[in-house]
Amino acid sequence: MKLTEDVELIEGMPIAYIKSINAIAVSDLHLGYEGVMSKRGALIPKVNFRKIKDMIKSAVEATKADSIIVDGDIKNEFSSVDVEEFNELYDFINFAKEIKIRPILIKGNHDNFVERYSIPFKLAVHRQQATIGKYLFFHGEELPKIEKKDTAMLIMGHEHPAIGIYYENGRKEKIKCFLYGKYGGRRLLVLPAMSYFAGGTEINLESRKSLLSPIFRKTDIDEMHAIVVGYGSTMDFGKISELRKMTAQ
User: Fold this and answer.
1) Domain span at residue 60?
2) What pLDDT does 81 receive?
3) Global pTM?
């Protein structure tokens, strides 16, 4: 699905492709999640990294991208690097080499200590934000600092956007989505979480005050479009304001 002449959302995946910089953009991988949770007594099947690799490989084959921008939270723990996270981070770097893409990490709030591995892993790490081409990538727990006048689009993660859909029988389903709108006169794209276990925040069912990212205090989120990712397709479900009306009925 094309957003602009330069930006495409890969069909059925929480991945954006930017043609001018030949890069795919993803966010919120939360590597090592199952291992960390097992130490807390929650036994979860190890599927997250496998599913992430499958999606990234498919996206690279489709686009021929030579870089992958991880827009924050490549790992899961806040205050340390768990051994499970280290192992999957190491495996991720080797996987990137195998499919011949260069990883670029925008540090998120879960990414403490990752820069320690930037030199041995040859991983480009940026704190909070980076301008690449005409695109400003930032994780989202802080407001972006727009330093270039020709910035075409802001791309962020952090929020794990989703929408809640009610069926006639009263059952509710949560579906991941991109959010697409404007901030400060520039286009704003919010990436869904790549993590299999990150269900997301149901934007159409939550108040603006309850959202994590400070940018939504300064953005009319009701005017943003929810572009849903699921069941092998990507579809624009319209503005959040319209989705709020539908779920309120």
Assistant:
1) 7-248
2) 59
3) 0.93
